[in-house]
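Subject: NPH3 domain-containing protein structure
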Amino acid sequence: MRKQALKLIRGFSFNAEVAMPKPCDLQINIDGQQIFLLKEKVISKYCGGLKKILNHRKRRGHGKQELGIRINDFPGGPEGFELVSMFCYNNGKIQITEANVCLLHCCAVYLGMTEEILSNNLLQQTETFLERIFNWKWSDTLVILKSCERFYAYADGYGLLEKIISVLAKFVQNSDSNLLMSSSPSASSSSSSPDTNSAKRFSFSSKKTTPEKLKSTLSRKAWWFDDLATLPPNIIEKLVQAIGAYKADNKDLALTRFLLHYLKLATQTRVVNCSNNSEYGALAETATYGVISVGKKMFSCRGLFWVLRIVSKFGLNRDVRRELEKVIGGVIEEATLDDLLVSGHDMGVYYDINLVIRLVRVFVDMNGSDSDDGMCLQKQKRVGRLIDKYLREISPDQNLKISKFLRVAECLPDSARDCYDGVYKAIDIYLQSHPSITFEERTRLCRCLNYSKLTFEASKDLAKNPRIPPRVAMQALISQQSKVPTTDYVTETPRVKPSQLVLYNEKTRNSITQEKKDMELNIDKMQWGVIELAKLHKEMNNHVSKLILLDPARTSSSPRFC
């Protein structure tokens, strides 16, 4: 009590020169907002803190002068002190409700309104009222908690928040048990209240709960999500701590869903930036740990990217982010192009390209860079097709450097691509969007191509493309020549040897089966295919001759790969 009185003295200022009419002999200024004219005798009867201050004034010889006191940062401001005045002038009686009990309790502690001063004082009455808190309804508990926002520091320091939040934690944990143990959709309906679900809250379903059922159930909001979403982040953080699921300790799936819901709303309804994201940082980290603990069992690949987009806005810890990226990289073969298009604004580039490179590297580490496993190879090829689409999407970005383009193109092993036509298309888009790059830079850009895995059509287009350096085009054409036989071809229909001729009379021709007809059709197609290859071979030779004439300095040495 002595410490409390000293605290009050520091927070109060005196004005002994103020004259006031009788019978009010005490003037109290609350936060500079409102002045209360009171009787010293009435207030001193209940407020031990004020009584000690007034006694201290009298000992200093100011007994005959009127006293003015200023109290700064009073719990609840003038509203709180008005409730205290009503209590004192009503012979120690006031109606205590869920809406005012926390404010009255903080005022009573602040002013020292204890049993030592008077029996059944205000502090005792509020403590008696709060003893029934564990029997209150969810709505009443929420009203009490919200009332503490105006005097959060006092409610926290006096232990009120701990009591109230512990009650909310019980509601949430009981809801989690019902949400996870019951396979009935109605058990987790967002329209269900804690009162209507009280009979089900501790019931266990006899049906087996599978990961698929859990994933479907957890995708729906629990009834308490929207209620708690209106609370400030400091209170939510204390709630998470009370549940015992803070940061790395979070294994609570329903709580993880709520935190993601809460953080998403924060980005939509509140201003979140570098100056205040620390308020949400611990919540984002806790949600991320919850996602990491279940991984792909409960979250699809798209869901994991959704989580990454949300938590990234709150300055996520680098180590925690790396763990989340490991989970995403392990299932990136299930991703779509839209999933990879995460905004980043790194060095002016619109998309977060470094993120995609890190995810692909995680994938390669998990599946092997040159694995002979058929399943891993199929995954690699899916990712290869995805990355080719991604390259075409980011190529028009004017701020995309060649080095970054190459890092994306080369983050996968060569075995991940059966065909490099997609990479060539991305290179062509890049060259069209960046017409000012030098000849050497164009050559460097093409180094990610495997010419032997280009189709004939892509090779022909590359050879005629004016944006491609001649040396690169010549290399592509030479690599294609190995696919064409070197023997001379004629342009007429191939001559058939006499031994291959089959004579048919009318009777035999009518007996030819459909299978033989199909075989003859396939042979005709193959013969015309050989003719087309011969024409292409002749055309390629002409292109090579022209390129060599254009670049005679290189005729003495064979071309090198870029």
